[in-house]
Design goal:
156 residues, alpha+beta, 5 helices, 4 strands
């Protein structure tokens, strides 16, 4: 081959290789822009792990201290635990009937009062009914509150 015949082939080959490199470089840059930087990922994860403590009644902490050493409570169809990141007490009750739920809830409330809790309403317990839709519908909405407590606890 003569130089005049090789020159166009070399120019085309160099142009193709250059075009491929440019496409690869833009592809890599585009991928990096879509991928969050490590710093941004850590910030997002840290924000999702932050506590969202709910405000509670003035004497919540005083009453919680009396009960906290007994938590979590575990029974055959219930559990009661303190969620520190939300600052709430969760009582989960599994029931096959509305009456079973009420009996278990009463048993839990009696136990809490036996721990020398003076104001069970200050604990603002979140009652979670783990039951079929039929059972949940049979339970009066007021029975999902701690017995004798107002719908909204007083802010002292």
């Amino acid at each position: 081959m003569t130089l005049t015949k090789i020159k166009p082939v070399v120019i085309i080959t160099v142009a193709v290789i250059t075009a491929i490199l440019i496409i690869l470089i833009f592809g890599i840059l585009a991928t990096k822009e879509k991928t969050p930087k490590q710093n941004q990922t850590n910030t997002t994860q840290n924000q999702s792990k932050k506590s969202i403590k709910l405000p509670q009644a003035k004497n919540f902490d005083d009453e919680l201290v009396k009960l906290k050493s007994s938590l979590p409570l575990q029974g055959p169809n219930y559990s009661v635990k303190f969620n520190g990141s939300l600052n709430i007490i969760l009582a989960e009750v599994k029931a096959n009937s509305a009456q079973e739920y009420l009996d278990t809830k009463t048993k839990i409330e009696e136990y809490i009062k036996s721990e020398e809790v003076d104001n069970i309403c200050a604990l603002n317990i979140f009652w979670v009914v783990k039951a079929s839709p039929e059972v949940r519908n049979a339970i009066d909405v007021n029975d999902t509150l701690t017995t004798g407590c107002p719908v909204v606890p007083p802010k002292n």
